[in-house]
């Protein structure tokens, strides 16, 4: 998540709300991120972290097409390679003589090392290997610093990015130095960049007070904010104007809290298919809003016309509009969901989404193509699909501790990457089928059917990313089809997994319970979370809510026809 900007309209509030977490929270974050501990791992496009064994293995470096080496443990008493070690290769070397002790000040090397990495990646074929003795502390600290300095990441974002691909453990001293860098970069960003309104752009006295030297007008032109370079001719300001494209819109009114907020909420409901509750939650995370009672009633009418769920009374929103906005890494999904479709038949796996991805070939070469009549249940009149915030509260309320794998349904296990790659554990559990919800090569689990060629396992893969904007709903029915086919034989046992076994895999199995076991999204979550710690991302929860609404509607229609 990029660092925030200052506010030109109220410079006194330029400190922002971001705070660097304490070291204890950062350590907990690193411990919960499930990476690997190989001699060499790619942790960011073109950036590898590893140990001294990989650093001295020229054949491995050449196989990975490494062009640059950053030794974070240079020196006579460390990993004493130096540029001479690589003189028979085309590798560019940079050494940092550092010791892995909390008392050692590694921060003077943050910027030189970051600049070396940036220079290495400036070439389309550039790849940099950053190492120390074990590839855990010194090397990871320098990579984290690079991501913060040149990739505009916060320390938390950098740890998440690297930790997803490799286990890292900067010592306490290095962690405090990274925290100081995080705070420094955040303050620099706030003090040097400002985001403002038309009045501020025209207030030369304010601009001079803030020592503004450059202005970027993102709404240039006669129909927008027509200042131009001539407006600043008497000031030492360089001007750059950009005609605002249609996808960059400022919605405003006099105070920016009622009329503009109401129209923005309506847009989110109509175009992004958010309920009124969800739209209010999203906007209030970023700005305090207060639509008047009349506008709120009109939004409630819109909500009723768009969704079949019950609309809350105006009084239910009172607390939402008085809550201070705060930054949230769950953004509005940018990819519009097209909605769930279903044909006339009442099969368990129904809909065009099941057609979007053909089932991958099983071990025998045949493709899974199964339908079965789902049990019809009477609609529960007093049930309505909860909002995303309510589902998050259910998920966070009382769950089991995290483990590598858990049985969440008879003969169905949800697990992580370690479980999926541990053939001994798979045999011990009696696994016969695997659904990989994170197939792919980058930040996924790159196993594939070939990985299990020496085992009697049927494999099915879904290429999905664990980001809120990814449309996982296109695989809900095809994955449910595979799960149902597997469980039709009581001798079969299924492992559903992704990297951590929390988001993608959990979402697909929840969808199965809703489609084939006639559970509501609440029932499905309550059932699974009693058996495994699951955390579907915000976008996946939204897609599960839409599935829940779709299934409720179809079951209601079926009950009406009977």
Automatic annotation (TrEMBL):
Q: Does the keyword Cell membrane apply?
A: no
Superkingdom as given in the UniProt entry = Eukaryota
Q: What is its EC number?
A: 3.1.3.16, 3.1.3.48
The record places domain Tyrosine specific protein phosphatases at 114-166, 248-287, 474-532
Q: Ranges for the Tyrosine-protein phosphatase domain?
A: 38-187, 404-553
Q: Supply the InterPro entries for this chain.
A: Atypical_DUSP_subfamA, Dual-sp_phosphatase_cat-dom, Prot-tyrosine_phosphatase-like, Tyr_Pase_AS, Tyr_Pase_dom, TYR_PHOSPHATASE_DUAL_dom
Keywords, in A-Z order: Cytoplasm, Hydrolase, Nucleus, Protein phosphatase
> Where is this chain primarily localised?
cytoplasm
Instruction: Quickly give the catalysed reaction.
Output: O-phospho-L-threonyl-[protein] + H2O = L-threonyl-[protein] + phosphate; O-phospho-L-tyrosyl-[protein] + H2O = L-tyrosyl-[protein] + phosphate; O-phospho-L-seryl-[protein] + H2O = L-seryl-[protein] + phosphate
What is one term from the GO cellular component aspect held by the record? cytoplasm
Where are the residues of the annotated region Disordered?
1-21, 332-364
Where does it reside? Cytoplasm; Nucleus
UniProt lists the family membership as follows: Belongs to the protein-tyrosine phosphatase family. Non-receptor class dual specificity subfamily.
Name of protein: Dual specificity phosphatase 29
Origin organism of this chain?
Pundamilia nyererei
């Amino acid at each position: 998540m990029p660092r925030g900007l200052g506010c030109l309209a109220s410079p006194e509030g330029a400190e922002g709300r971001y705070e660097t977490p304490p070291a204890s929270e950062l350590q907990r974050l690193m411990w919960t991120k499930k990476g690997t501990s190989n001699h060499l791992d790619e942790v960011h496009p073109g950036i590898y972290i590893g140990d001294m064994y990989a650093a001295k293995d020229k054949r491995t470096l050449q196989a990975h097409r490494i062009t640059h080496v950053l030794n974070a443990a240079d020196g006579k008493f460390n990993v004493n390679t130096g540029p001479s070690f690589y003189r028979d290769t085309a590798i560019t070397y940079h050494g940092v003589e550092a010791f892995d002790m909390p008392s050692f000040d590694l921060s003077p090397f943050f910027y030189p090392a970051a600049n070396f990495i940036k220079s290495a990646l400036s070439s389309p074929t550039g790849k940099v290997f950053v190492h120390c003795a074990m590839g855990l502390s010194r090397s990871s600290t320098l990579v984290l610093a690079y991501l913060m300095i040149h990739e505009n990441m916060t320390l938390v974002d950098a740890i998440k990015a690297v930790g997803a691909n490799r286990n890292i453990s900067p010592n306490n001293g290095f962690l405090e130095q990274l925290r100081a860098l995080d705070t420094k970069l955040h303050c620099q960003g706030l003090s040097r960049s400002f985001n403002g309104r038309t009045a501020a752009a025209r207030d030369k006295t304010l601009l001079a007070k803030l020592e503004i030297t450059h202005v970027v007008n993102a709404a240039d032109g006669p129909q927008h904010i027509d200042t131009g370079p001539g407006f600043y001719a008497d000031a030492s300001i360089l001007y750059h104007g950009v005609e605002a494209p249609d996808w960059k819109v400022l919605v405003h009114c006099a105070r920016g809290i009622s009329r503009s907020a109401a129209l923005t909420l309506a847009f989110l409901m109509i175009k992004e298919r958010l309920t009124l509750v969800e739209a209010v939650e999203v906007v209030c995370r970023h700005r305090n809003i207060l639509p008047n009672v009349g506008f709120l009633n009109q939004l409630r009418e819109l909500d009723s016309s768009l969704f079949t769920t019950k609309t809350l009374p105006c009084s239910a929103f009172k607390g939402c509009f008085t809550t201070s906005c705060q930054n949230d890494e769950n953004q509005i999904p940018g990819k519009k969901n097209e909605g769930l479709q279903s044909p006339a038949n009442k099969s368990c796996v129904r809909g065009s989404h099941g057609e979007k991805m053909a089932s991958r070939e099983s071990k025998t070469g045949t493709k899974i193509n199964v339908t079965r009549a789902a049990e019809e249940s009477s609609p529960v009149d007093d049930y309505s699909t909860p909002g995303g915030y309510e589902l998050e509260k259910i998920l966070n309320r009382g769950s089991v501790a995290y483990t590598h794998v858990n049985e969440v349904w008879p003969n169905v296990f949800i697990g992580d990457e370690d479980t999926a790659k541990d053939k001994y554990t798979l045999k011990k559990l009696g696994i016969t089928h695997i659904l990989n919800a994170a197939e792919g090569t980058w930040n996924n689990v790159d196993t594939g059917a070939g990985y299990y060629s020496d085992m009697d396992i049927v494999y099915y893969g879904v290429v999905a990313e664990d980001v809120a904007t990814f449309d996982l709903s296109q695989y809900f029915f095809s994955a449910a089809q595979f799960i149902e086919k597997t469980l039709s034989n009581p001798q079969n046992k299924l492992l559903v997994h992704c990297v951590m076994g929390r988001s993608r895999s959990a979402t697909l199995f929840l969808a199965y319970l809703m489609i084939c076991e006639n559970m509501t999204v609440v029932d499905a979550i309550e059932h699974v979370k009693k058996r495994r710690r699951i955390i579907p991302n915000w976008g996946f929860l939204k897609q599960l809510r839409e599935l829940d609404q779709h299934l409720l509607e179809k079951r209601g229609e079926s009950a009406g026809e009977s």
